[in-house]
Design goal:
Elements lengths: L4 E7 L2 H12 L4 E8 L10 E5 L6 H9 L5 E5 L5 E3 L3 H12 L3 E10 L2 E5 L18 E5 H9 L9 H10 L4 E12 L6 H4 L9 H18 L21 E7 L6 H9 L7 E7 L6 H6 L7 E4 L8 H9 L7 E4 L5 E2 L4 H12 L3 E9 L5 E7 L9 H4 L10 E4 H7 L8 H10 L4 E12 L11 H31 L1
Parallel strand pairs: 1-2, 1-4, 2-3, 6-9, 10-11, 10-13, 11-12, 15-18
Antiparallel strand pairs: 4-8, 5-9, 6-7, 6-8, 13-17, 14-18, 15-16, 15-17
Helix pairs in contact: 2-4, 2-5, 4-5, 5-7, 14-15
Length: 490
Amino acid sequence: MTKCVNCFIPYQDKAQVEQTVKGLKESMLVNKIYLLSTQTSAQEIEGCEIVHIESLKCTPAIKKIAERSDSQYSLIYTKESTLVLGLFALERMVKLASDTSAAMVYADHFQIIDGVKKPSPVVTYQMGSLRDDFNFGSVLFYNSQALKDAAAQMNTKYQFAGLYDLRLKVTQKGELIHINEYLYTEVEQDTRKSGEKIFDYVDPKNRAVQIEMEAACTDHLKVIGGYLEPEFEKIEFNLGNFEVEASVIIPVYNRIKTIEDAVKSVLMQKTKFKFNLIIVDNHSTDGTYEAIEKFSSDERLIHVVPARTDLGIGGCWNMGVHHPKCGKFAIQLDSDDVYSDENTVQKIVEAFYEQNCAMVVGTYMMTNFNMEMIAPGIIDHKEWTPDNGRNNALRINGLGAPRAFYTPVLRDVKVPNTSYGEDYALGLNISRNFQIGRVYDVLYHCRRWDENSDASLDIVKMNGHNTYKDRIRTWELMARIALNKMSSSK
């Protein structure tokens, strides 16, 4: 094989890159090595050229990489830690990139976390893998022509979204191929639990980043035909015959430590209309059933134990929504969370009428078990704008809380019978046709504790969750592209 790979390596200091450079030079495939430095006083390393950049994530840096991608393939390493390629790893990447005509390949790998080497498999990219935090690993192996063509179309100068914009534009040129083989080892410096990482995208301090990511994704959707204009179906709110105006629905399984707090926060609500509370108890065995029954004297409480034993959280939601006593509006409360005050239900129902929407998303505050605020604090999901929220929803990994639905629409759509991502699937589907309303007051306390379903997931479970959400996005994107094609043909 000829020298056909140019390598682009982040440079923090000479000691940091020396081992990585040494390993790359041992390969007969490496043509040139460029060190990407944010420092003007970077020390030279023999056989390497230093390229000064502001940040690897900015558009000018991507343009500089594209200008120097004069070999068949370009390897971009994204971490400022040592990279150790596996035996014949570059040869394998070159072969599969050639065999598949991929625009980019990426691979499973090993991570060294706190001195321990662990496998780090990644997931397969698909049409709906639009989230900007999609984990490719730290080695991005591009077909140089695809990289150069994509970079040439990067007309917006981003400070944070350059690498993301490149990826989206590359997917317009060809496929991103996942190599299900462990081809390299990297050092992982972010050792937080999964439950601590999942809220990074909504941290208020990252708002400037999110605005750029939204712009890049929206531009991509317009190119591929998945963008929806801000035109929505009007709702008259006159379907069905409901005994009460609203129902709070709580699916629960073995939450003896928290269920009473949740129930109390509902029954204390003050409203100008009738409401009830439907608890779907999915065969709890820890005393949760008995705890709920303590409130049975309140006629507003409807305690349901399904005859079925195959229900996830989504299936329990379906049981609640299709219950004959469900109100016109169905409002979510998780069994380990609480409403912030006695006005939450009233504010949510008012939002439906004021904003003419089929779904309402509120604002919540992250708390510990004792309901004391923790980082990142108040989550307002400002990306749910009236003009672009339903497009931006294809990029983000969650929709906010509490969520509420116009019951006739929810009964028609139905909730996927899963225990992860079911709310996200609903939001995408409903937003295809209807406006999503917003309430920016804090309505909800989201308690983080060790028994949260996503508090500390292993890599396999996390990958399963992310693959499912990517799949949800793929299905929704396919539907939106088809809808646009149908509209344009009329």
